[in-house]
Amino acid sequence: ELPGALSIRGDGFRYDSHYRLEGRRLEIRRSLRIDFEGNVCTPERFRIVRRLAQDVLDDLQSEAIARRGASR
User: Fold this and answer.
1) pLDDT tens figures, 33-50
2) Which residues, in sequence order, are CB contacts of 36 under 8 Å at separation 6+?
3) Cα torsion angle, 54, 55, 60, 65, sign
């Protein structure tokens, strides 16, 4: 059982994850890009980024479950 692929987009924020099981090999690909214009974050932007970051953290904590005897 694999987590579903995830794609999150926001203003200056991009995260993608993909999970694939091929035989006995589990491939996990994750990509995070943050590109803000400056070093100061407005309260509104902070709320948006915090919400997006929570989604990323949830994905990072997801689990791939292998069951004995599962089809390959």
Assistant:
1) 988 777 888 888 888 888
2) 12, 45
3) positive
